[in-house]
Specification:
The chain is mainly alpha-helical. The chain is 66% helix and 3% strand.
Length: 256
Amino acid sequence: MAIRQGRDSTTADLIAAIAGRVPSRNLHSLVLWQLGTAIVRGDYPEGSILPSDTELLGRFAVSRTVLREALKTLAAKGMIEARARIGTRVLPRQRWNLFDADVLAWHFETGPDVALLRSLSEIRIGVEVESAALAAVRRSEEQAEALMACAIRMGEATTPQQFARTDLEFHRTVAEASGNPFMASISALVELALTAAFTISSPVEDDTAMVATVKAHGRIAEAIRAGDAEEARAAMKAVISEGFARAEGRLEPSKV
């Protein structure tokens, strides 16, 4: 199974498009993507030993250097561990770095489920709610106006991707306005959550949801501009909770 240079669009490509980045296309990233996705999907279960380097080299048709770099990257993400005379073992899922953008993307590539979306929403609520409260206290006038402008542009979006890009800009601005550099560390979670909305259920496709979502973001922006930390907390929690509920509603019927 040689690497396909002209692969179909993946979650990583969607994230890059929404975040305004150019997706990586080198051999290392392609091998890493296919191996990472295979592990998350369960092709190589937890506790199992990966095929030998010789077999993987034949499967991917890449150099030993490229393969070793991909395996080193997976090890750094807590997904595999090489042992002398044993081989490379897939580690328990609890050891995986779920804050890593690639690991999260591989979960979405294999098909996001309600449990994963719920966990993402919970961690976002745990961080972004306080980020909004801090932004209400620490934001600059420029940041307050930028948030108001973002909320307006969200209402003018005509495609899911355009909406998601503006939504991401809004949440990034809130994180920056919080004045806490650690808030930006969850940017990968936010990007994945917005990609989920883009691929599962975008409010752009539902006039009622669109109006409600834009209004909810406007509520956050207004609270931050007014310096109302408690209202900012409540408004941010509502936006995240409603986004999860919308995605959950689209996923659950398919499992009935």
